Structures are given as C-alpha cells and as structure tokens.
Amino acid sequence: MEKFLIKGEKALSGEVYISGSKNGALPLIAASLLTNGVTILKNVPNLKDITTMLEVINKLGANYQFEGNTIKIDATRVNSYIAPYELVKKMRASIYVLGPLLARLGRAEVSLPGGCAIGPRPVNLHIKAMENLKASIKIKNGFIIGRAKKLKGSEIFFEKVSVGATINAIMAAVLAEGETIIKNAALEPEVGSLIDFLKKMGANIKGENTDTIFIKGVSKLSPIEYDVMPDRIEAGTFILAGVITKSRIKVKNIIPEHLKSLLDILNEMGVKFQIGKNYVELIKVKKLNPVEIKTAPYPGFPTDLQPQICSILSIVPGISVVNETIFENRFTHIPELIRMGANIELNDNIIIIKGVKNLYGAPVMASDLRGGAALVLAALSAKNETIIDRIYHIDRGYEKIENKLTKLGAYIKRIK
User: What pLDDT, in 10s, does the model give residues 343-373?
Assistant: First the structure.
C-alpha cells in the first residue's frame, strides 16, 4: 500500500495550475448517456473517481477513450440499465446514472452507492425526485429499481438542499414530457456547469444560479464538446497549503468567485492576497487570527474545505470554532491532527481548536478524501517527518498532488 512521506517546515513558492473539477466532471459524464453520438469533455482530471464513473457507463453500453485530460464518450449503444454493486460501491456519485437511465431507457437498476465514510447521505431525495417525475421506484436487494414508461414533468421541492439530488432531477427532467419546476435547488457551481452543458446540448432550462429551476422537456439532445470547470476545492486546498506554510504562491486556472467564502475567512484571519481574473496570489502570511466558521451549502463555506482549514487553525494562536452542519461524521482528521500535537475538542458537530505553536510529524492515516488532504497540509508545516497511510483516498480527488507540491518546493514522496 502506498504512503506519503513528508518533511515539513519548508516554505513554498511559485505557481500551481489547478486541474479540472472532479465534482464538475462526474455529472457531465453521466449526462452523456442522454444522447446518441460522441460527447467530448476537455480539462478532465485523471482521477480514480473519474475512471470509476467511466467504468460504470461502459457497463451500460457506452464506449469511451480517455487520453491526457480529454474524454470521448460514445453513448449511441447504451442498452443496459443495471449499474452493478462492484462499481457503484466505490463512489457515491455513481447514483448520477439513475436519472439519465430512466429518461433514456425507462428503466434503471442502480446499486445503493458507497464513497467516503463521512456520514449518512441518504438517497431518499433522489428517489423522491424520480417519483415526482412519475417513475415507479423501489429498493430491493440493495438496488434502486426504477421504471417509467415516460417521465412526466412535475414540481419537485427538496426539503433539504442536495447537490446530488438536484443534479439527478435536472438530468431526468430534460427529456421528460412537459415542464418541471425544481424548488430549493442547490446553487453549487457544479450544478450551474451541468445546466450550461445541457443547454448547449439542446435542453430548455431557465433559472440557472437560482434556487428555482424551470425545465421544459425536449425530444432529444445532441452531443457537444465542453471544457470542465476548474476544481474549486483543489484550488482552496492549495491556497491553504500556502497559508499553513506562510508562503507566497500563485494559484492559477481558477474562478475566484467560487472561492469567495474561503477568501472572506482568510481575510478575517489576516491573510493578504491578490485576486486576478483567473488566479489568487498569496502576498503576506504572518500573524494569523482565530475565527469562527460554519459550513453551509454554496455560497456558504464548503464542507469539503473544513478539514483543511482545521489543520491551519491548529497553529493559529487563540481559540477557533468550526461548526460542521453538512456531514455528521466529517471528523476523521481530528484524532490524527491530535496525534500531531493539535489541541482540539469535538462536541457533537462543533470543533473547538486551541492553537498550538507547532505540529509535529507522526504516522497518521487518511480515512477520507478531504481529511487526507488536511493531513498533507498539517505535515507540510509540521516539524520532522510525517508518514500518511491510505493515500488512495487522497488520489480520489487530487490529480498528482505530490508533483504539484514538489514543484512548489515541498518535500513529499510517494513510498511503498
């Protein structure tokens, strides 16, 4: 099993180019099932989650080529409606094929999904959306089994904001008969990217970037060529890598607007930075201030950056408080940071951090994707060496993270 060996206390410098968004690309791959012909996606990160989704659609009959950062998907011969357990268990986003399969084939059998163990993420909102579109849904033997002679437009109201359920509902509704109105829809940029993608394929959608989306079903969509948006979570992680090492680095190929909640917090902490059209450059990182943070759906502070900022707050003088409101178990990084010398208390979903002068290298273990990234950041600033085990979690969401950090001046090695 591979591990990371990191020697800390090295200042970083230079520029880092952010990859395409994993969470943005996954729905686009699923949406390619909605049309015959060849869809071309560019700026796709070469990650395990991406290849897993490609294996899922290949099982459904789609062919693909993945070269460099470009994927060509030919969904002309999609003829299977079964997404098997051995693939879907690896990644929660595999449930994105539910809506497209019901829209295109009128049938779907999708295994209940897996993914990071960061708390229950029930599929009930996905199921409710499909039922609102007049699909018959039942759960049997670990599968979501759906049937629909023809999906029909309807009103869908989500009691709780859900990115995944919003995405599935949109993909199902674009080929449904009549009009669909989705209320309390997620506002995440990845949802906006999917809507833009589908509109360019010929979908009739209005209300993008609002919490109410109007969709008039069309008879068919056409394949297109499309660039995947930059990964805002990878961008945030590298910005935080610069902060925790008190370094001056430039993070490029990003959409700064997508990072506003993080940049607002960093400004409150005393971090100086410059914002350009497609970059953020850290200017001055000296004395940092403690803060209070509450995770929330976009445009609030992203839960996917909560573990990483906890690493930084561990060495900020004073008491910081982080309220995790999205996932009830997104705390696997806490005991590992404590092993490295952090002073952290966890009360239900409230993280209380008393800043210490230094973190110290130790053997630690990644238990989920973003928690693993938090340990990498902690190790970059820690005294001595840190060995991080189970880094396959990190590989799910960061393309060549050790190469990018090495180019910035970090000492990080992938070892057996």
Answer: 999 999 999 999 999 999 999 999 999 999 9
pLDDT, one tens digit per residue, over 266-316 is: 999 999 999 999 999 999 788 899 999 999 999 999 999 999 999 999 999
Q: Is 116 noted as a catalytic residue in this protein?
A: yes
Identify whether residues 281 and 292 lie together within a single domain: yes
Indicate the helix (H) or strand (E) that contains 252. strand 248-252
Distance CA 255, CA 295 (A): 20
Full domain range(s) for residue 149: 22-227
Please tell me the total count of domains within the chain: 2
How much of the chain is in helix, strand and coil states, percent to nearest 5?
A: 35, 30, 40
What letter does residue 198 receive in the DSSP assignment? H
Instruction: Return the pLDDT at 122.
Output: 67
> Sorting pLDDT into bands at 50, 70 and 90, what band is 117?
very low
Which position has the token pair 């910081």? 320
Q: Which of 29, 116, 235, 280 is catalytic?
A: 116
Q: Do residues 190 and 215 both lie within one domain?
A: yes
Instruction: List C-alpha distances in Å: 220 to 36, 173, 175, 336.
Output: 9, 12, 7, 50
Q: Is the pLDDT of residue 113 over 90?
A: no
Please check whether residues 181 and 257 belong to one and the same domain.
Answer: no
379 and 266 part of one domain: yes
**Residue 103 belongs to domain with CATH number:** 3.65.10.10
